From TrEMBL:
This is Transporter. The keyword Acyltransferase does not apply. The keyword NAD does not apply. Signal peptide: none annotated. It comes from Brevibacillus fluminis. The chain crosses the membrane at residues 6-24, 31-53, 59-83, 104-122, 128-149, 161-182, 188-209, 245-264, 270-290, 302-326, 423-440, 447-464. Keywords: Membrane, Transmembrane, Transmembrane helix.
Length: 465
C-alpha cells in the first residue's frame, strides 16, 4: 500500500531538481537551498514568520549535526600547520624517499604515502608536504611532474578522501543525509573504494607508462632542483634530536589510535573524538617545544588558522545540508509536528510512493547514484552535494527495500572522485601549482582513468545491492 503525496512533497522534489540544475550549470546552490527551506516551512505551517525563522533553525540543526566533523578537520589542519612550520612533517616522510629508485616506484610510493597521510591529515595539507619532499626525488629518477601530480591526486583526493575512514568527514555527511549510522556507510564503502582505487590508479599508471616509453612525456630535469611552488612558509628551527623524536612520536600516536579503535570497538563519534583529541595533544606539545614562551599564543593562532580553513570548506556545505536534512527528521526538529498525518518524513514518503509507481531496479538505482555523485561533484568541492547523494540513496532504498548503505557509499565515492580534486580543473590548482603543471592538462590525464573506475565500480555496486 502506497502513501498519499501532498503539495509539500512536490515542493521538496521541485527544489531538489532546481539544486541539481544549479550544479549542472556550475552555479552556487546556497540561495536555492535557503529559498527551498523557507518555501517548505511556509507550505507546511502557513506562517511567514515561522518559515523565515526556520531558515535560521535549519542552519543551527545542520551545524549541530556537522559540528564534530567540522571541528576535527579544523584541529587536524591546525596540527598540520605546526608540523609543517617546524619541519616535523618533512622528517616523517623523508625516509620513504629512499624507496624511490625508478619512475614506477616513484608513482606508487608517492601515491601510497599520500594516501596514508591524507587519511590522518586530509589531502589539502598533505599536497604541499608531499610535493616539497618527493617531487625533486621523483624527477631525478625519471617520473615527470605530471605523473607526481596524478599520483597525489588519485591516491589522496581520490582514494583517501572518498573513503575518509579515519577522520570520517565524508561518510558522516552522507550517513546523516541517508539517516543511517556512519559505520554502515564506511563498511559498505570499503569494497567500492578498493575497486575504484585499484582500477583508477592502475589505469592511470598504464597510460602514464605507455606515454613515457613512447616519448610523449618527458622529464624536466631542470625542475628537479627547483623548490616547488607554495612552500615558502617561514620555518621554525627545532633541535634535530627533538624534531626527529617528534617525527617518530606523531605517527606512533595515530597508529595507537587506530589500534584502540579496533581493540575497544570505537566507531563514529568516538573514533572521531579520539583522532581529534590526539591531534590537539600533538598541536600543544609541538607548539610549546617550537615557540617556548610564546607557545600559548601560537597555539591559539594555529587553532584560528584551522577554524578558518574548516569553515571555508564547510561554508557552502551548510545551506545545502540544511535543506536536505529537512527531508528527514530535521523538518520536525525545526518546524515542529506539521507533516501530514501518517507521514514518515518527506524523503521516506517519496521513496514508498516511488516503490509503488515505478519499477525501480538495482541497476537503475546504482547508475542514478553514480550520476548524482558526478553532478554534485561538478562544482569542484566534492562535499557540497554529497548530502544530496545520501538523500537520494535513502529515497531509492525505500523503493528497492534494500541497499541504502551501498547506494550512499556509491554516491559519496562518485561525488568526491569527481569534485574532490581529480578531474575538475579549478579543484586541481593546489597540486598543479606545487608540481608546476597545467591544471587542465592534469585534469585531462585523470579523466579517462576516473571514468573507467566509475563504470566498473558502479557495476560492482549492482552486485552488492
Amino acid at each position: 500500500m502506497g502513501v498519499e503525496l501532498y503539495f509539500l512533497h512536490w515542493v521538496y522534489v521541485l527544489f531538489v531538481l532546481l539544486i541539481i540544475a544549479m550544479m549542472i550549470m556550475k552555479r552556487d546552490t546556497s540561495l536555492v537551498s535557503i529559498i527551498g527551506i523557507a518555501v517548505l516551512g511556509l507550505t507546511a505551517t502557513g506562517s511567514i514568520s515561522t518559515s523565515i525563522g526556520g531558515i535560521f533553525g535549519s542552519f543551527i540543526y545542520a551545524i549541530t549535526e556537522l559540528l564534530p566533523t567540522i571541528l576535527v578537520i579544523c584541529i587536524i589542519v591546525a596540527m598540520s600547520q605546526v608540523l609543517t612550520e617546524t619541519g616535523i612533517n618533512e622528517s616523517m616522510i623523508r625516509p620513504m624517499t629512499a624507496l624511490i629508485r625508478n619512475p614506477a616506484l616513484a608513482y606508487w610510493v608517492i601515491g601510497i604515502v599520500m594516501m596514508v597521510i591524507s587519511w590522518f591529515f586530509w589531502p589539502s595539507p598533505a599536497v604541499a608536504l608531499i610535493g616539497a619532499v618527493m617531487l625533486p626525488v621523483a624527477l631525478r629518477v625519471g617520473l615527470p611532474a605530471l605523473g607526481v601530480a596524478m599520483s597525489m591526486n588519485l591516491f589522496g583526493h581520490g582514494i583517501a578522501l572518498s573513503g575518509d575512514f579515519i577522520i570520517q568527514g565524508a561518510p558522516t555527511l552522507t550517513a546523516k543525509a541517508a539517516g543511517i549510522p556512519v559505520t554502515d556507510v564506511i563498511e559498505a564503502s570499503v569494497p567500492l573504494v578498493i575497486v575504484m582505487g585499484v582500477v583508477t590508479t592502475v589505469t592511470a599508471f598504464w597510460l602514464l607508462w605507455r606515454d613515457l616509453k613512447s616519448g610523449k612525456l618527458v622529464v624536466d630535469q631542470k625542475a628537479a632542483v627547483e623548490q616547488p611552488r607554495g612552500n615558502d612558509k617561514k620555518r621554525v628551527a627545532l633541535p634535530t634530536s627533538i624534531r626527529r623524536t617528534l617525527s617518530i612520536l606523531v605517527p606512533i600516536l595515530f597508529l595507537l589510535d587506530v589500534l584502540a579503535m579496533f581493540l575497544f570497538d570505537l566507531k563514529g563519534g568516538d573514533a572521531t573524538a579520539l583522532v581529534g583529541g590526539t591531534a590537539l595533544v600533538i598541536l600543544l606539545i609541538v607548539a610549546l617545544f617550537a615557540h617556548k614562551g610564546a607557545g600559548l599564543e601560537k597555539t591559539t593562532e594555529f587553532l584560528i588558522q584551522g577554524f578558518q580553513f574548516g569553515f571555508k570548506v564547510f561554508g557552502p556545505v551548510i545551506p545545502i545540508a540544511a535543506f536536505f536534512y529537512m527531508g528527514d527528521s530535521g523538518f520536525v526538529k525545526v518546524f515542529g509536528e506539521v507533516l501530514p498525518q501518517g507521514s514518515q518524513g518527506i524523503v521516506n514518503d517519496l521513496g514508498i510512493a516511488l516503490a509503488h509507481t515505478i519499477p525501480l531496479s538495482k541497476e537503475v538505482a546504482a547508475v542514478t547514484l553514480t550520476a548524482v555523485g558526478v553532478i554534485t561533484g561538478l562544482d569542484g568541492s566534492g562535499f557540497s552535494g554529497i548530502t544530496l547523494a545520501g538523500s537520494i540513496a535513502q529515497l531509492f532504498s525505500h523503493a528497492l527495500g534494500t541497499g541504502i548503505a551501498t547506494l550512499t557509499a556509491l554516491g559519496q565515492i562518485a561525488a568526491i572522485w569527481v569534485g574532490g580534486g581529480t578531474i575538475i580543473p579549478w579543484a586541481l590548482i593546489p597540486a598543479a601549482a606545487i608540481c608546476g603543471v597545467d591544471p587542465f592538462e592534469l585534469a585531462r590525464r585523470n579523466l579517462y582513468p576516473v571514468i573507467v573506475g566509475l563504470v566498473i565500480t558502479t557495476i560492482v555496486a549492482m552486485f552488492l545491492l
